[in-house]
Prior knowledge:
There is one protein chain. The protein is an alpha+beta fold. It contains 10 helices and 9 strands. It has helices at residues 16-42, 49-58, 77-90, 92-112, 115-127, 240-274, 286-314, 320-344, 356-368, 373-385, and strands spanning 132-135, 151-155, 158-169, 176-183, 189-195, 201-205, 217-228, 276-277, 280-281. Strands 1, 2, 3, 4, 5, 6 and 7 form a 7-stranded mixed β-sheet that branches. Strand 8 (276-277) and strand 9 form a beta hairpin. The longest helix is centred in the middle third of the chain and has 35 residues, at 240-274. It is globular and about 80 Å long. The protein starts with 15 loop residues before the first helix and ends in an 8-residue tail after the last helix. The chain binds 3-thiaglutaryl-CoA and flavin-adenine dinucleotide. 3-thiaglutaryl-CoA (TGC) is lined by residues 96, 99-100, 134, 136-137, 143-146, 169, 238-240, 243-244, 246-247, 249, 320, 369-371, 375, 379, 390. 3-thiaglutaryl-CoA binds at residues 96, 99-100, 134, 136-137, 143-146, 169, 238-240, 243-244, 246-247, 249, 320, 369-371, 375, 379, 390.
Amino acid sequence: MFRGVDFYNVDELLSDEDRLVRSAVREFLEKEIVPLIVDAWHEEKPLNFHELGRKFGELGMLGAFIPEEYGCPGMSYTSFGIICQEVERVDSALRSFVAVTSGLVMYPIWQYGSEEQKKKWLPKLAKGEIIGCFGLTEPNHGSDPGSMETTARREGDEWVLNGTKTWITEADVADIAVVWARDVEDGKIKGFIVEKGMQGFQQYSLTKKGSMRAGGVGEIGLVNCRVPEENRLPEARGLRAPLSCLNQARYGISWGAIGAAMDCYETALNYTKERKQFGAPLASFQLVQEKLVKMLIEITKGQLLCWRLGRLMDEGRATTEQISLAKKNNVRVARFCARTARELLGANGISLDYSPIRHMANIESVYTYEGTDDIHTLILGRAITGLQAFRRE
Ligand code: TGC
Ligand code: FAD
């Protein structure tokens, strides 16, 4: 079983609860998910989250940081991070499922929903009884969701939604979608819980992906889709609401990406100790050692960032920019480690029998979603200079 990479004894900084969560999640993944992942990825047959989600729920892996009063685990943000790290060590699509469910579906309901909405949806989502998705990105607006074209028009006690959301994780299988649309009356962005089967709600899957092939991604069509007022998130007013949800998922990615990097490092270390060329293990050559050391250094720095960010999240003090820095850095670490591990495995690095090439392909999605690497540079650039460079004035 995987033991972990912990050069700076970060483990000592975790609580007993954090460590317990990690070993329970790790044991479950090793037994039930690892054997499925290569075929699911190779054949692009997404894992069945309707089935697996219930097991995730039993282990407290969904909405980990949301309080128990809503039937949720009520753990710390650090524990949420550890869960993300463990699942992404296996495959980024698993972390996507956990981060989308927790940060992009449960969080907006918890923060912006009515008491009735929280009581109705959060316990079911936490148990994995239903699956949710988050519709922000549109065909013409990815990095700039503030320009979204999806509209919401009030008609009596209902809202009529029109538009398309694309590249949506679990769109095709979701039971509910948290959808963002612009009110044609006041021009403000509002959030809606759209339920499967509602009139005018269409769900499609996107295939032929070269990344995230063990998970589902799709499109949402809203064609005069009628949603009752009771399904509008009453406290969500403006773009700030969906963007605040991204903080939660970006935080999960910061931890998750280091999980993928750790798996790549371990795989490369074990392989190069075993594999012999020129009569000696690859790991005995200086050029190979340098690559392994560079991976270890980057992973260790990423782990320390995660730990500190986790503490700031637990204290309610983490800023958007601190989250951006960790997302940007740690995804870059994962990208570097996946590529380096792939290289160290030679031709075997091309085979899906070894994980680095799968992580390498998955990380391309992670580099792009939840704010591209460039967008996080610009968020940080704005924070340190006071000058925005996203759009021309
Ligand atoms: P801007 O003027 O900067 O902000 C509008 C209002 O929102 C506030 N705000 C935030 N609040 C909380 N958290 C954040 N991260 C926030 N970012 C901004 C801001 O203070 C302002 O508030 P107020 O009260 O003054 O109105 O808006 P902008 O239009 O200039 O955009 C800024 C920018 C580019 C940073 C933003 O649009 C952005 O982050 N773009 C990236 C889009 C993105 O990340 N999309 C992700 C879609 S979901 C996804 O990818 C899921 S992947 C699935 C998975 O994880 O598996
Ligand atoms: P664009 O915004 O068109 O960007 C293209 C390129 O231009 C990028 O390199 C970008 O960095 C660069 N660029 C853009 N603006 C600037 C600028 N001002 N300055 C410099 N460079 C710039 N979205 C959801 O809403 N929900 C989901 O569940 C979801 N899941 C996803 C799952 C996967 C597997 C993927 C790949 C995407 C998912 N997305 C989701 C969409 C994701 O959030 C967007 O792809 C992302 O925000 C980028 O938008 P875009 O693809 O339209 O790229």
